[in-house]
Amino acid sequence: MHELSVCLSLLDQVRRIAADRDATVVTRIELEIGPLSGVEPELLRHAYPLAAVGTVAEHAELVIGETAVTVRCTQCGAESTVRANRLLCEQCGDFRTNVISGEDMILRRVELDLH
User: Fold this and answer.
1) Distance between CA atoms of 81 and 47, rounded to whole angstroms?
2) Mean pLDDT of the chain
3) pLDDT tens, 10-25?
4) What DSSP letter does each residue of 45-77 carry, written as one string?
5) Sheet holding 61-66, edge to edge
6) Closest by Cα among 18, 17, 15, 26 to 57
7) Is the pLDDT of residue 52 over 90?
8) Burial class for 73, CB neighbours closer than 10 Å (0-12, 13-18, 19+)
9) Whether residue 2 has pLDDT greater than 90
10) Please, what is the Cα angle at 105 between 100 and 108, to 5 degrees?
11) CATH of 2-113, one of 3.30.420.40, 3.40.50.150, 3.30.2320.80, 3.30.930.10
C-alpha cells in the first residue's frame, strides 16, 4: 500500500517537528492533498492509524483537505481552476497549460502539546 509509506514519511517529518520544539504529543495534523498528487486521501486515512502506533502522533487527529487543480495557459496566460482529467484553459480552450497547483501533498499545520 503506497499510502502506508506516505504516512511513514509524514510521521517522520512530524516527529522531527515535535522534537525540535520539545513537544511530548502531537494533537492534530493538517494536510492538503491535490487530486494529481498520486495520494488517495481515503486510503491515507485508513493507513494513518497503523503507521502512527507508538509515535508522538499516535492519537493525533488527521485532517485532510483537498486542493483544486489550477493551470496557467501558455498561450493566453490565463489561470483556470479545472477538473483533474481536463487540464484545458477555461479562457481560450487551449490544451497547452502548466499545472500550478493540485499536484502536491502539503503539511499545512501540526498542533503540539508542549507540556
Assistant:
1) 30
2) 95
3) 999 999 999 999 999 9
4) HHHHHHHHTTSTTTTPEEEEEEPPEEEEETTT-
5) 61-66, 25-33, 105-113
6) 26
7) yes
8) buried
9) no
10) 100
11) 3.30.2320.80
Asked if 35 and 99 count as a contact pair (C-beta separation under 8 A), the reply is no
The per-type count for the chain, helices as H runs and strands as E runs, is: 2, 6
What would the grid cell of residue 8 be? 511513514
pLDDT at 1: 55
- Tell me the mean pLDDT in the region 20-40: 96
Q: Which three cell numbers mark 27?
A: 494533537
**Phi-psi bin for 17: left (phi > 0), alpha (psi -120 to 50), beta?**
alpha
Q: For the chain, give every domain's residue range.
A: 2-113
